[in-house]
């Protein structure tokens, strides 16, 4: 998967840059510290060593999860760190090595998804799932109001809402349509699901994943054949295969 490779490269470059900065921060004032006290350079060396070692460990674990798709210890905390602390830094590092913001966002969401799935497979599978969809999926000529009650949809099939409703019923999960970030946050607070499967564009998906951490969000980018925010589409087969996997994880868990 190219996104995983991009993310692993970004993490490696970021780790090297931070380690270089830590080395410089240690080496440059080394002789000044020695003038204050003989032991000070060793103490400073220990502090920078622990910081550098911790960083290499965290980024190394992230690379393992990214490349192998396996769960690692502290995967929940790791996801929170990656989601909250790492993305802005990765965008800057991505620019330095010639990547577009969207490439970094795709890599970030792909790895977030790996971490979320690893948590579901190795921890407690989610009991309640919310499918959170953007309003731009609805056909622009459709006059049915689905934002407050998606069941109002007449299922004419002109847009993906019909298929999503069928999936929601088949797998017994909640489906909601949000017109923006504020409404999406309100829906999440009302439903309080164990897992959100969210569909959106790069900007909304990455900011939504960051906003809702530590709540796990599996992100799927919408398709935009007519440009942004107009009659967008979603790969229903991807949503379905994820729901199928979660259902089978729950079934395995309940089997004595
Ligand atoms: S499937 Fe539902 S929401 Fe989409 S156009 Fe038809 S009635 Fe409207």
What is the CATH topology descriptor of the largest domain?
Answer: Rossmann fold
Largest sheet: 4 strands, parallel
Taken in chain order, the helices and strands follow as HHHHHEHEHEHEH
- CATH secondary-structure class of the largest domain: Alpha Beta
Count the strands? 4
Query: Whole-Å distance between the termini?
Result: 36 Å
Give the proportion of residues in helices: 55-70%
Number of spatially distinct domains: 2
CATH architecture of the largest domain: 3-Layer(aba) Sandwich
What molecules are bound to this protein? iron/sulfur cluster
Q: Uncertain regions: pLDDT < 50 for 5+ in a row? A: none
Biggest sheet: strands side by side, in what order? 2-1-3-4
Apparent shape = elongated
Q: Using the CA coordinates, give the radius of gyration.
A: 22 Å
Q: What number is the mean pLDDT?
A: 86
């Amino acid at each position: 998967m190219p996104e995983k490779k991009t993310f692993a490269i970004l993490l490696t470059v970021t780790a090297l840059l931070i380690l270089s900065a830590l080395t410089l921060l240690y080496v440059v004032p080394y002789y000044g510290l020695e003038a204050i006290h003989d032991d000070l350079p060793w103490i400073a060396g220990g502090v920078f060593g622990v910081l550098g070692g911790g960083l290499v460990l965290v980024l190394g674990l992230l690379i393992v999860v990214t490349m192998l798709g396996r769960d690692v210890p502290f995967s929940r905390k790791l996801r929170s760190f990656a989601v909250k602390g790492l993305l802005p830094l990765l965008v800057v590092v991505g620019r330095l090595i010639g990547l577009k913001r969207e490439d970094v966002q795709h890599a970030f969401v792909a790895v977030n998804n790996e971490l979320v799935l690893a948590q579901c497979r190795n921890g407690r599978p989610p009991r309640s799932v919310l499918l959170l969809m953007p309003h731009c999926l609805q056909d622009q000529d459709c006059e049915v109001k689905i934002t407050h009650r998606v069941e109002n949809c007449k299922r004419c099939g002109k847009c993906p809402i019909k298929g999503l409703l069928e999936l929601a019923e088949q797998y017994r999960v909640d489906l909601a349509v949000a017109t923006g970030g504020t409404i999406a946050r309100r829906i999440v607070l009302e439903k309080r699901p164990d897992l959100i499967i969210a569909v959106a564009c790069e900007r909304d998906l990455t900011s939504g994943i960051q906003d809702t951490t530590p709540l796990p969000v599996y992100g799927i980018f919408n398709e935009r054949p007519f440009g942004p925010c107009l009659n967008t589409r979603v790969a229903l087969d991807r949503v379905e295969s994820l729901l199928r996997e979660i259902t089978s994880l729950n079934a395995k868990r309940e089997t004595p």
